[in-house]
Specification:
The complex is a heterodimer. By secondary structure, chain A is mostly helical. Chain A contains 13 helices and no strands. Chain A starts with a helix and ends with a helix. The relative contact order of chain A is 0.12. By secondary structure, chain B is an all-alpha fold. Chain B has a single domain, classed as MetI-like (MetI-like fold, Orthogonal Bundle), CATH 1.10.3720.10. The chains are: A mainly alpha, B mainly alpha. At the A-B interface, helix 1, helix 3, helix 4, helix 5 and helix 7 of A face helix 1, helix 4, helix 5, helix 6 and helix 7 of B.
């Protein structure tokens, strides 16, 4: 190879690199502005005290985190969110699976069944909350009216600490089960019919076929849905604004709502930042799982 | 399995479907009946437009519709622009540190804009984006998932098409525009449907960034209209809710197959 061709090649490579950086830079600038910089800034803010006019904020290390752990409200909110995740994730996933099996079976009115399961997914959380408000209102809400027909006493679903969080969970499950169903439905349709026939010939019951063949084949989908459900258990809090505002006495308050409240109602940015960091750590663990999964999905294509 | 059980199961599936859709159907029904009739389940009661009239007069809905429309369009155009360019670079151009950079981009899948509200508010304030439609949309434009999706799609475009276009004299951007973008049309459509339905429905960040009727999207407008302090009766709230969800819902029911396919193709928002 002569010097001049090598030089040409080098120039071409350099030009390509310049093009590449030019193509990437708009997205990288946006991501840095609205994701990377704010993440670093959040960590930084969480290490400083809340400044007032008299006391300018000063570096306090992990004091904000200590304060959070000592804050009974935070402990209750964290517990609520664990409960919220612990209820909504498994229930939505099992419901989604059952719905997908039904929507995939040869049943009458299958089109209607699919649409009915999926439609709540298309509604804004705020709209869903308004709809359910109608059901939960004591005295004249639909649940009370139906209960009244059977002689049940009036229940203030949103107004008492024992039921408020459960009422919130129900709306979330209603919203997300149909969404997850779609992924199961797609996965079910890739399972070849021969497998079922073979299982039938072998004399396997439908339950055995489901447990030994279908469920293992759905594992990648389940993992994907699981990570999405985990993210949703942090993210889906819009209905709190309509239904309970976190009450009564914090019994239905979730972390993201508390972050919002701390920052924009109590003006306690350091405390909000510390909570944000904790949430990011939890989501980071989810990220580790997701990266491995995305990798696998890439191999499929 | 016996035929009897199969029928029972089908009946159960339909029953759950009816149960699942009934809250929405009830809300739509209540929107057109007086509060007393709605509360008492009076199925034979006459229909009325009174609630719709009350709801329509109670808030600047046209403005909210316009804002949501602008927001959804702006986010979509931004996402197409940023994700196409970045996705193309990640898919087809040799760069030092490309893989590390891509991993860094994917991190954003978990640093949700929803979680970063506190610092993003500061960023938006410093950029003068508070109470603007651009301010609502900006954090979502360079979406890591969009970049990932476009990269995957561009990677599957045959290399021969690329080379043919280069021989014809296309530059880097020319190849992108003439070969890759047309080949990715189904992905764009899927991504658009998911993006539109996500941002039509988004609430928390718009609530924080906006503080006037000239920028508020429908969801924020609806939450203000339905606030208990406002003292609107539940039928008017149902009417307003129906009004807000109707456009997207009708679009969904008409193009149902496309929507479901779109969510499969571009499942994470």
């Amino acid at each position: 190879m002569t010097d001049s061709t090598r030089q040409l090649q080098q120039m071409a490579r350099r030009r390509q690199a310049v093009h590449g950086w030019l193509l990437l830079s708009p997205a990288l600038i946006m991501l840095s502005t609205f994701a990377f910089y704010p993440s670093v800034a959040t960590v930084w803010t969480s290490l400083w005290s809340r400044g007032t006019r008299r006391n300018p904020s000063e570096f306090v290390g992990l004091e904000n985190y200590q304060r959070l752990l000592d804050d009974p409200t935070f402990r209750e909110v964290a517990w609520n969110n664990l409960l919220y995740a612990g209820v909504t994730i498994p229930v939505s996933i099992v419901l989604a699976l059952v719905m997908a099996l039904w929507a995939n079976a040869k049943i009458p009115a299958r089109g209607f069944v699919r649409t009915a399961y999926f439609t709540p997914t298309m509604l804004p959380m705020i709209a869903a909350a308004n709809i359910w408000l109608f059901f939960y209102t004591p005295g004249f809400g639909v649940l009370d009216t139906i209960g009244g027909l059977f002689g049940a006493p009036s229940v203030n679903w949103l107004g008492q600490p024992e039921t408020a969080l459960w009422a919130i969970c129900a709306v979330t499950i209603w919203k997300e089960a149909g969404f997850f169903m779609v992924f199961y439905l797609a996965a079910l349709q890739t399972i070849p019919e021969d497998l079922r026939e073979a299982a039938q010939i072998e004399g396997a019951s439908r339950w055995t076929y489901l447990r030994r063949i279908v469920l293992p084949l759905l594992m990648p989908t389940t993992l994907f849905v699981l990570v999405n459900a985990l993210i949703n258990s942090v993210k889906l809090i819009d209905h709190l604004f309509i239904l309970t505002k976190g009450g009564p006495s914090d019994s239905s308050k979730l972390i993201l709502y508390y972050i919002w409240e701390s920052a924009f109602a109590f003006f306690d940015a350091p405390s909000a930042a510390a909570m944000t960091v904790l949430v990011l750590i939890v989501l980071g663990v989810g990220a580790a799982v997701q990266f491995r999964m995305l990798d696998r999905r890439t191999h499929y294509r | 399995m016996t035929g009897w059980m199969r029928h029972a199961e089908a009946a159960l599936a339909v029953l759950v479907a009816i149960l699942w859709i009934s809250p929405l159907v009830f809300a739509v029904w209540a929107a057109f009946h007086t509060p007393t009739d709605a509360i008492n389940f009076n199925l034979t009661a006459p229909w009325t437009l009174e609630n719709v009239r009350t709801a329509w007069g109670g808030a600047p809905w046209l403005r909210y519709f316009l804002n949501t429309f602008l927001l959804v369009t702006l986010v979509l155009v931004g996402q197409f622009f940023f994700c196409t360019l970045a996705g193309y670079a990640f898919a087809q151009i040799d760069l030092p540190f490309k893989d590390t950079l891509f991993l860094l981009v994917l991190l954003q899948l978990f640093i949700l804009p929803e979680v970063l509200i506190v610092e993003n508010y500061d960023v938006a304030a410093r950029l003068g984006l508070l109470d603007t439609v651009l301010g609502i949309g900006a954090p979502y434009m360079a979406s890591a998932f969009g970049i990932f999706l476009m990269r995957q799609t561009f990677k599957s475009v045959p290399k021969e098409l690329d080379e043919a276009a280069r021989i014809e004299g296309c530059g880097t951007l020319g190849v992108l525009w003439r070969v890759y973008v047309p080949a990715a049309r189904p992905t764009y459509l899927a991504y658009a449907l998911v993006s539109i339905s996500t941002h039509w429905n988004n609430f928390l960040w718009p609530l924080i960034v906006t503080n006037s009727d000239t920028t508020r999207p429908l969801t924020v407008g609806l939450s203000i209209f339905a606030a208990p302090e406002n003292g609107v009766n539940i039928s008017a709230i149902s009417a307003a809710t129906t009004l807000v969800v109707a456009p997207l819902l009708i679009l969904f029911l008409v193009f149902q197959r496309h929507f479901v396919q779109a969510f499969l193709r571009a499942g994470i928002k």
